[in-house]
Task: inverse folding
């Protein structure tokens, strides 16, 4: 992990929050994951729709159930910029695992998180995940890229 700019104490708190959130993702702990979100989180997930608002614990549980065992969820090259009550960070994330049908998956994607400090605690208010797409006219997602 690489140091960012701004409020060093807030940056440390945010890095700890993101590690705890990633740990909850790996364990497929729905309550642990959503505990780090604001109630009105805005999400741009890899999966449709284009935009989601609010916490969708049921949808997350349904997605987790498609992965038996633990889930590979790694945060790489995290950069954090934090002020007193707002922050943003970006990283590369590696998602990996085996689906219930036995097919193994691995994808790297870009992730941006925006956070707000609410009642003394940092919460993720916006999550944006994306993969590049091929500009050759096929518009295929470039899910085979690695850092």
Result:
């Amino acid at each position: 992990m690489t140091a960012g700019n701004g409020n060093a104490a807030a940056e440390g708190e945010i890095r700890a929050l993101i590690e705890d959130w990633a740990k909850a993702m790996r364990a497929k702990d729905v309550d642990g994951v959503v505990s780090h979100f604001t109630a009105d989180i805005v999400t741009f997930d890899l999966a449709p729709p284009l935009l989601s608002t609010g916490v969708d614990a049921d949808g997350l549980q349904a997605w987790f159930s498609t992965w038996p065992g633990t889930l590979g969820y790694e945060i790489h090259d995290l950069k954090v910029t934090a002020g007193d009550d707002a922050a943003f960070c970006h990283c590369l994330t590696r998602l990996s695992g085996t689906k219930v049908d036995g097919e193994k998956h691995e994808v790297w994607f870009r992730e941006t998180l925006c956070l707000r400090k609410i009642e003394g605690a940092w919460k993720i208010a916006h999550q944006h995940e994306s993969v590049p797409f091929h500009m050759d006219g096929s518009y295929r997602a470039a899910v085979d890229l690695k850092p």
About this structure: Helices lie at 8-27, 30-34, 57-64. The two ends are 15 Å apart (CA to CA).
